[in-house]
C-alpha cells in the first residue's frame, strides 16, 4: 500500500509539474499524509475556464479529470484517468479536496509560524537573562 501511495504522489507531482509549465494557468499542487491533489486551470477571453484536476480517491486510486466551465457555470468534464461514473461529481470532489488541503496547509503554516515566534521570544528572554545577570562577588573583593 505504501508503494502505491508513493507512486500516486509521484504521478500527482509530475502532473503538477506538467501543469505548472503551462503559461497563463493557475495551478495548485498540495499534499498531506495519505492525500494529494493537483489542479490547473486557465480562463480565456470569453470567460470559459479550461482545466484539469487530479486527486486520489478513498481507495487510493488516482483520478484525473479534464473540464471546461462556461461563465454561466455549465461544466463539461471527462475522465482522463481512473474509473468514476460521474466526471462532474468527481471534479466537485477534487475541487473540495484541493480547498480542504489548502486550508490544512495554511493552518499548519500558521501553527509553525506561531511556534517559531514563540521560540524566538524564548531565545530573547534567555539572552536577556544571561546579559542582565551580574555575578555577585563576595564582599571581601570590594
Question: What's the layout of helices and strands?
Answer:
Elements: H1 2-20, E1 26-32, E2 35-43, E3 49-56, E4 62-69, E5 75-81, H2 87-132
Antiparallel strand pairs: 1-2, 2-3, 3-4, 4-5
Q: What is the count of DSSP helices, taking H or I runs of 4+ residues?
A: 2
Q: What is the overall silhouette?
A: elongated
State the low-pLDDT regions, or none.
10-14, 17-24
* Main sheet properties: 5 strands, antiparallel
The helix-strand sequence is: HEEEEEH
Q: Termini distance?
A: 74 Å
β-strand percent reads 25-35%
Mean pLDDT: 78
Number of strands: 5
* Spatial strand arrangement across the major sheet: 1-2-3-4-5
Count up the domains.
1
Task: Give the key terms.
142 residues; alpha+beta; five-stranded antiparallel sheet; 2 helices; 5 strands; elongated; signal; Putative SP-like 3
How would you portray this structure in words?
The protein is an alpha+beta fold. The protein has one domain (2-131). It is 46% helix and 27% strand. It contains 2 helices and 5 strands; from the N terminus they run αβββββα. The chain has helices at 2-20, 87-132; strands at residues 26-32, 35-43, 49-56, 62-69, 75-81. The chain has a 5-stranded antiparallel β-sheet, sandwiched between helices. The longest helix is centred in the last third of the chain and has 46 residues, at 87-132. The radius of gyration is 25 Å and the shape is elongated. The protein starts with a helix and ends in a 10-residue tail after the last helix. The model is unreliable at 10-14 and 17-24 (pLDDT under 50). Residues 1-24 form the signal peptide. Keywords: Signal. This is Putative SP-like 3.
Amino acid at each position: 500500500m505504501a508503494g502505491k501511495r508513493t507512486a500516486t504522489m509521484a504521478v500527482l507531482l509530475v502532473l503538477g509539474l506538467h501543469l505548472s509549465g503551462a503559461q497563463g494557468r493557475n495551478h495548485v499542487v498540495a499534499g498531506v499524509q495519505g492525500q494529494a491533489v493537483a489542479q490547473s486551470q486557465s480562463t480565456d477571453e470569453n470567460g470559459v475556464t479550461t482545466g484539469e484536476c487530479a486527486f486520489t480517491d478513498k481507495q487510493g486510486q488516482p483520478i484525473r479529470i479534464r473540464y471546461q466551465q462556461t461563465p454561466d457555470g455549465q461544466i463539461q468534464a471527462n475522465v482522463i484517468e481512473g474509473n468514476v461514473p460521474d466526471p462532474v461529481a468527481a471534479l466537485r470532489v477534487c475541487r473540495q479536496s484541493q480547498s480542504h488541503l489548502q486550508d490544512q496547509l495554511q493552518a499548519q503554516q500558521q501553527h509553525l509560524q506561531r511556534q517559531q515566534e514563540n521560540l524566538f521570544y524564548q531565545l530573547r528572554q534567555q539572552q536577556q537573562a544571561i546579559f542582565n545577570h551580574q555575578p555577585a562577588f563576595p564582599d571581601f573583593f570590594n
